[in-house]
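Training component of the fellowship. As part of building independent skills, the fellow (R.M.) carried out the full modelling exercise for a liganded target. The chosen ligand was magnesium ion. The inputs are recorded below so that the supervisory panel can assess the work.
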Amino acid sequence: MTDQNGPKLLAENVHKAYGRNEVLRGIDMQVRTGEVACIIGPSGGGKSTFLRCINHLEKIDSGRLSVDGELIGYHQRGGKLYEMRDKEVAAQRRSIGMVFQRFNLFPHMTAAENVMAGPVVVRGDNKKKAR
Ligand SMILES: Nc1ncnc2c1ncn2[C@@H]1O[C@H](COP(=O)(O)OP(=O)(O)OP(=O)(O)O)[C@@H](O)[C@H]1O
Ligand SMILES: [Mg+2]
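Fellow's submitted model of the complex:
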C-alpha cells in the first residue's frame, strides 16, 4: 500500500443505513500510524458496523474510507467510484486485521496460534514473524 505519510485510516463522511435505520451518519475519523484509537458508544450505536465497513464486509452508502491512502473497496476513475472485484477486495483485506465480536476460535489451537493463523495461512508469513 502507498502513502506512508498520510493517515493509516481515513474515514470521510461515511454513511451507512440498514433500510430506514441510519447507523452511520457522516463519520469522519483519522488514525495515524502507531496510534491506538478506541470507539466507544452504546450497544447498537454502529461500532461494529463501522469496523466492518473498513474492510468492506459492509458497503458504505456514501463517503470514503481509505487505509494507507488506498481507497477501500473501490477504484476511482474520473469523478466516479467503481466497486472492486472480490479478488481485489480480498487482497486489501490481507493487510487489515479484525477480531469479530462473536469470534470462533479453533479449539485445538492456543489463543496465540489462532491469532497467527491469518498471517500464516493467508499471507504465508513464517510462524516466528507471525508470533
Ligand atoms: N446486517 C444487519 N442488518 C440490519 N441491521 C443491522 C445489521 N447489522 C447491524 N444492524 C443494526 O445496525 C445498528 C448498529 O449495530 P452494530 O452492531 O454496529 O452496533 P454496535 O455499536 O457494534 O453494538 P454492540 O455494542 O452491541 O456491539 C443496530 O441497530 C443493529 O441492529
Ligand atoms: Mg459491536
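The panel noted the following from the submitted structure. The radius of gyration is 16 Å. The beta strands are 9-18, 21-31, 62-67, 70-71, 74-77, 80-83.
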